[in-house]
Structures
1.
Amino acid sequence: MKNTVRRSLVLILVIAMFFAGMGILLAQFIIKGPDWVTNKADRHIYYNGAIINAGEIQDRNGVVLAYSENGERHFNESESVRKATLHTVGDTTGFIATGIHKTYSARLTGYNLFNGVYNLKKHGQGNNIILTIDSEVCALAYEALNGRKGCVSVYNYKTGEIECLVSAPTFDPENKPTDIDTDESGKYDGIYLNRMFSGLYTPGSIFKIVTSAAAIENIPDIYSRQFTCKGSYEMGGGKVICNGTHGTISFEQALGYSCNSAFAQIGELLGNELMTQTAEKLGFNKDFSVGEIDVNTSRFDLSKAVAIDLGWASIGQYDTLVTPTHMLTLMGAIANGGTAKMPYVIDKMTSPAGTTTQKTIVSNCKTIKLEEDTANKLKSLMRVNVNKYYGDSRFPGLSICGKTGTAEVSNGEPHAWFVGFSDDPSFPYAFVVILENSGSGSSNAIPVANTVLQKIKATKN
Amino acid sequence: MLEFLEQISRYAISVIGILVLIFCIISLLRHKGNKTEKAFLTSTSSGERTSLKEFETAIGRSKACDIVLDHGTVSRFHAVISLRKKSWYVTDTFSKTGTYINMKKIKRKAPIKDGDVISFGTAAYKFETPFVSEVSEKDKNVKPTKKSDVKQPEPVYVSALINDSKDMAYCLDMADCIIGRDDEQCDIVLKVPTVSKVHARLYHNTRGWIIEDKGSTAGTKVNGELITGKTKISDNDEINLGGVKLKFCLRFKRVK
Amino acid sequence: MTQLYTKVEEKRFAWFPVLLLITVFQIISFIQVILKTEDIDLKTLGVFSGYIVIECLYFLIAWLVTKKTNFELEMIAFFLSGIGLAISASVEQDFAFKQFVAIILGLVGFVVLNLILKDVDLVMKLRMPVAIGAVALLIVNILLASEFNGTLNWISIGGISIQPSELVKVAFVFVGAATLEKLQSARSITKYIIFAVACVGILFLMRDFGTALIFFFTFIIIAFMRSGDIRTIILICAAALLGALLIIYFKPYVATRFATYRHVWDYIDDQGFQQTRTLIYSAAGGLFGVGIGNGELKDIFASTTDLVFGMLCEEWGILLAFVVISCFAFITIYTIKSAKTSISAFYTIASCSAAALLMFQCALNVFGCTDILPFTGVTLPFISRGGTSMICCWAMLSFIKSADTFSAVPSVIKKEVAE
């Protein structure tokens, strides 16, 4: 009998394995629960793959951008607002991977381990999310894009709030075009991408800011040096073509004229190593995120570069790719004396009753490390750019520091860039404008930036 | 109101579920499976007492048994003593040397009761239990006897040496006993001067009962013949120990 | 003479408060079902009140007859069956009545089997006929069965469909256990191995892999309990593994049934459909659930049988679902404790293997539908809808109960102290 009884202890092993299984299950519920609940197959939240039940999304002024009613998801009543805020808010089906509907779906539905989706099910209410964007400004920015692809974004470099965020092409979520998946003309290319976060662009001349930063930090006599531009610059068996023949110019003039010959020479002086070092200090090749939204990583890689490639890289061509968010933050760093505030789009989350459950705390960007001295020097260089070369008259009432870019791309017209910021403590805004295949930055991107900035200025007064 | 009740009941079912489980666990923790001694086996040779706490007890030479008998004539798995609905039983589990109840070999399974001597091979044990059997030896499966009947002494059969002249019997409760004049050394004491202090040994093995002279002065006779070594004795044999005549009776009816 | 047999101290299970709690629990859950169901049937109301009445009557009668209070097992069984009944009713009112009848049958079977099991000698005599009957039943099953959801484990007699493999589970434990004297005199377990191989083999032919797996696991437990020989067990497992590999080699369709294991999200709308929905809705319930009848999982196929754990999580809450599966762990711990003092090795083996069977089946169901183990489609004991399964569960409970000596002290008469 004692043997039989002793053998019954094998059941303890069975129980132990059973409890182990329960532990795994519970851990999975805790860790993966939010992902599971917000899966599109969940009929508590989705119907036919489209989100139906979730909390409201509002802009900074309380304008409702998206809400649920009677088991259906609705958007703002104005079509231009719907289109302009689509990529920030996200579509119902979650195709826009960086949209709030997708990235914050668990929070938006009010799901938590304790209550599950009970409140959503019972009262049709989830958590509300209040954004930092201004829907009116976005709508205007969308109109300013005037059908061109690209994106416009403006953020307050003192607080980190992104007030304007528009990506085009876009569509109206209430009347989604039926030909969106079948179209071959290219008008819907990358329509589900928020170009601000996911777009990777050749920077072109705006990269000269990075090269300048490297020069200021590493070439002590950069301000007294003279560079010769004969319309092109030969190096390492290749030739960097310039946009003009500038003759003998100083560093300051080189940036103002955006002289490729001069910057190729600066690049040559610096060499691969110092260029890479500075680029990485300024956030290239570093992971980046806006809240919980993942931003594509800007790339600067000279490991396979031959001599001429360094020249091209110095003026923002070669293999270098940047995301607009990164450029925006870099502008914030220069404007803010070296330390950038992290940009964010979600101001706070509130429960259905209205109490704030989560509020974004402003933080400094850790991936961009710019010396204060360098930042100030860059700031005055960029101020000179606008003042002397682009003309302050193009920004009435504003004091803008900026750099245009015309990035050559393999297919079609160059991308038009304009990045910069307002050097005015009472109007602390940095901006980025990119228009795909739209020609020169100066003539195309600057007016868009001005329109948006004027609008923001108007709303502040 | 209904809304409020629904809220309450949502939590209530989980809470009650947990309470039910906790109540059951508390009861389980409180419950101690205390084993009581249900019977005793006392060795007739050494007097060693072993208690039986289980309802089924395996006996054998193997360490896997509940009671390990390190004895040459005990098989590895010799027998099982079990307490069943009506009585205690001993079951021989195909041992080589057999199992005996009061010297009677059992076939497979037999009921036992308080006071029985169980022999595993030649290892004999007295069985004691507070449980009273409801079955008699002859009719195992008859209806249980009434409580009043149980108290009446039942006939018990043991092997015995009968002294006709003195009209008394020496019951061989043990499977191995020494006969002689000395009180301390002998199990059966014959206070007769012609009997040596340690006269003879009478024991039981697989062949049956064996008598052996222990170097007595007067000698031991079986059916009138003087024995020298070990001699097997059978029923009704006359044994003469230094003039004391005893008759060997294999099945002696003893009244309790 | 000293008193040897001291009366075993009666353990004090506070059965009355627990019964009260369970009744309140059931009233709350039944009312929620009633409130959620439109045009509630009178029959359903009858089922609910009938269930509570029968439950209370059972404990009252059992208490009066046995004068004992060790009702933990029945209490748990009634608790779980009540949840199962409410879930069945919340999905389809027709289910409730069938489930109610099954619970009554199960209870009757429990009482009857308990009485049979009291006599070890009778049980030992019945083993052979039961074994033959069980194999015969399985053979009849495979001859008469029509395919249902990929398996052949249902037969229909006069409009009532039964699942013979569930009944054979009872026979499997019944035949597998043996008394100590039987174990000592017949060292080999050859006969039982033949019986087990026959059962598992026929189940494989029926393509009921879940039940086959349960049988195999129970067999391992019984074989170990009987022989204690770990080498033999390892040998058996190795042989079974080899057999399984051979089957997969010759019949590749078997493997495809398990292809989605650990990859359910890649097959979200085909083979992984049920598991992913279970996970989604289980998590959606949160700790306290979305309320009975408010779930979405109930519309998924087999929601009240194979996926019932998901329904528990979603509508009743993860907390209660974990209480429910902890109940099975409780039953097993109870078994270990009572097996120590059981009357015969038969009860020790039978109770341990029955508890292991329930536990393993519970694990296969719960961890199967949540993709921690392969999804085999077995029922959750006591909770899942299904008549034969319910009867089997109650029968398993009577094996476990039989080891509890407090319910079966032999009717030997105590010797008086004075003597």
2.
Amino acid sequence: MSVQPAQKPAGAPLLQVKNLQTHFAVGGMVAKAVSGVSFDLHKGEVLGIVGESGSGKSVTALSLIRLIPDPPGKIVGGEVIFNGQDLLKMPIEDVRKIRGRDIGMIFQEPMTSLNPVFTIGKQVMEPLLFHEKLSKAEARNRAIEALAGVGIPDAARRLDDYPHQFSGGMRQRVMIAMMMVCNPAILIADEPSTALDVTIQAQVLELMLDLRRKREGAAIILITHDLAVVAETCDRVLVMYGGKVQEASTVVDLFENPMHPYTRGLMKSIPHAQDKGKRLTAIRGNVPSIFDLPDGCKFCTRCPDVMDRCWTVEPELREVTPGHWVRCHLTEDKK
Amino acid sequence: MTAPSGVHSTGGEPLLDVQDLQVHFPVHGGVFSRVMGWVKAVDGVSFHVNPGETLGFVGESGSGKTTVGRAIMNLLRPMTPDVHLGGKILFRSESGVFDLNNLDRATMHPLRAEISMIFQDPYSSLNPRMTVEQIVDGPLKIHTKLTRQERRDRVLGILDRVGLQPQYANRYPHEFSGGQRQRIGIARALATRPKLVIADEPVSALDVSVRAQVINLMQDLQDEFKLTYLFVAHDLSVVHHISNRIAVMYLGSLAEIGTSDQVYEAPVHPYSKALLSAVPQPDPHRRRSDRIRLQGDIPTPLRKPSGCGFRTRCPVAQERCAATVPPLVDVGAGQMVACPIVAEQRAQKSA
């Protein structure tokens, strides 16, 4: 793995997200889970989206391919442009043809994202039969190849096993195989390694990054709460809090020069080996409920540098240095 | 924080001395639910914990680290009546040394005030029908002879100490966030002023920004109440941060035990090395190219490999590893490693 330079690749972005808004209506209240998220995904890049529970990172990912359960959720605004088309305005049948073929997805829970009553083989073959209209025999061979490719020993035999006969790490590798058989242009991975042990996590992340070797220009969106995983795998990163992007930059720039007080707080709160035994610098307070976000800056209730206007006026996301975007009143004046 | 103490106790008696602990769970099957086999969740583990120190237990799922904690809490027998428990768990209580592995309920009962537990999941470990005060008061009611007023003072005092205001005492768990619930769990664990606290993944379920608060709180409380922690977790950077010593478990056995810095900075056992090299670093300039890739998954404890449990995935395994279970040997400065191959290599190098 190497750190990619910050340059923007030539050509149009693979995926353009503009002012995405997804709300959930629960018990007469509206949660603005995602309120105005915009970003471009370029060919060949790994884009990280970091945030805590309730930050809107998973809802953003699910909204991109219209997997929001409606009701209670609803994508109320924005555009998601892929191949010149807005996925949010397309008939849902057309989106289904894109899911799996052009845009693959891996979820956090390998236990629940495989169907327990079908064999592994049937599930890995399904996208090939559906999207590529292969014959059963061809699909079977491709499925064996894919399972072997993610390191499932004795793949031809294990094709007829059921999900419960696989361990957690193996299930997640099956999910990756399932997604890789169609070599999608974009992979969206929502906490793909969170439920796994650390040695298995490393295997899964590497397999995922392999997609870029298999299909030139393939891009990955990696959703995680773990800054260390971002540092190890991503090229660019969005930091989300309270349904909004708070900071966006290259990974190197984010770690060398975090500008948003939330990002800084997160960085300081992870234990570093050299500071063993010292107190960690914690962010005060608790993650606010998405039903009860402040009017101004979403982080104002916990920010160590909060000012009067932060409570009432929400800052804009501005480009402070080239390619480094921050949503904070403190950096607004610097430009 | 006190300086890391050596692996061998430096004067004074250990608070907890675990000798050759074995926990084997029966597997039932067949028409008559006969015992078909045994899951050797913990298979011959020995270690000790000195008063006031934090011993971190790391390992992957299925390594037996949680079972060790539960064995010390004497929770296994009630959960699985026909579990096989072997070895000794010597606990130095105020009224003498007890073997927790061979105690009946009545003898164990008073000791429960001295050993308590913090659980992983702040959502399922608090009774949703009880108020915060009732939850924290529970152990006091059972284990102390304090009057109602004294108990109330103790509850409010400990709630204040963990950062919860007195008006929260009458609220229910669902009104709190994950971080606050874990504070309630900590308050409950500390209410009886225990000596030994077993914390099983206490911060794993918490958001990153809240995790640091809880770690700091646990360290402050340790200093204030002279607590001894057994800190079970899979997040190695957190374990390194909080522990004086670290024990690495694999498939029911100890692979390595040493000071926190020894194990984290210079692991010797091939498994500890692989485990440490897999930990992602929060620094994009330090992306690992030297990562040790382990093949496959941890085997099921139902069909453990003979000899060394790690040999099926070990990069340096030899034929002899299948023959005997390797004992822990000192490879220098008290760092104990259960691998004769690396131990010999180190001995040759230094000779």
